[in-house]
Design brief:
globular; 5 helices; 6-stranded antiparallel sheet
Length: about 190
């Protein structure tokens, strides 16, 4: 029994390693243009407005964060107060029940809502999530197909910003929605 379980773990690990290697070699999760992954230095971030920063993530002149590589999502649109992220759920996103783990949706919404707030900020100003809430209203499975997470700013003050987000499928059905509150600070 132990060897069978160990074999399943090795196969799952080998499969994940192959997907990770493929992703690193291609430079982008499946279905997205070639981009890089990493972080942007604090000094470089200070030189850009929030919108310049987010647009750099969209056009590939700045690296996406490494969680985007791990989860296979891309930041595809940015305008002041609005950011769109796309992904396609697959078997690496599943929970033990066989549906996509809620943490995947939470990450997509936290990212698009936070970046939407960031897109409204001036040079030398940053943001971080204080809290967020999501409601999972429809199951997401490997058969759902491409999904879109859109974050839109509701209110932005000097110290606090709020945004809402929703994840929809290709038919426009809402799968998950949420809200966030972010702290705004000088870098």
């Amino acid at each position: 029994m132990k060897s069978e379980s160990g074999e399943r773990k090795r196969n799952a690990t080998d499969s994940l390693a192959e997907r990770s290697l493929f992703s690193r070699e291609s430079g982008m999760p499946s279905g997205a243009a070639s981009k890089s992954y990493g972080t942007v230095s604090a000094d470089r971030q200070k030189e850009m407005t929030g919108l310049e920063f987010v647009r750099g993530l969209v056009d590939g002149t700045l690296p996406l964060n490494t969680i985007a590589e791990t989860l296979g999502y891309d930041i595809t649109e940015a305008e002041s107060g609005r950011v769109v992220i796309t992904a396609e759920p697959n078997d690496t996103h599943l929970n033990p029940a066989g549906t996509v783990h809620g943490g995947f949706s939470a990450t997509l919404l936290d990212s698009c809502m936070g970046l939407a707030i960031l897109s409204t900020l001036e040079k030398g100003v940053g943001q971080t999530t204080l809290e967020f809430k999501i409601s999972l209203v429809r199951p997401i499975t490997t058969h759902t197909g491409p999904i879109t997470a859109e974050g839109v700013v509701l209110s932005r003050g000097r110290r606090v910003g709020t945004a809402e987000g929703r994840i929809t499928d290709s038919k426009g059905r809402v799968l998950v929605h949420g809200t966030t509150t972010c702290l705004i600070f000088e870098r």
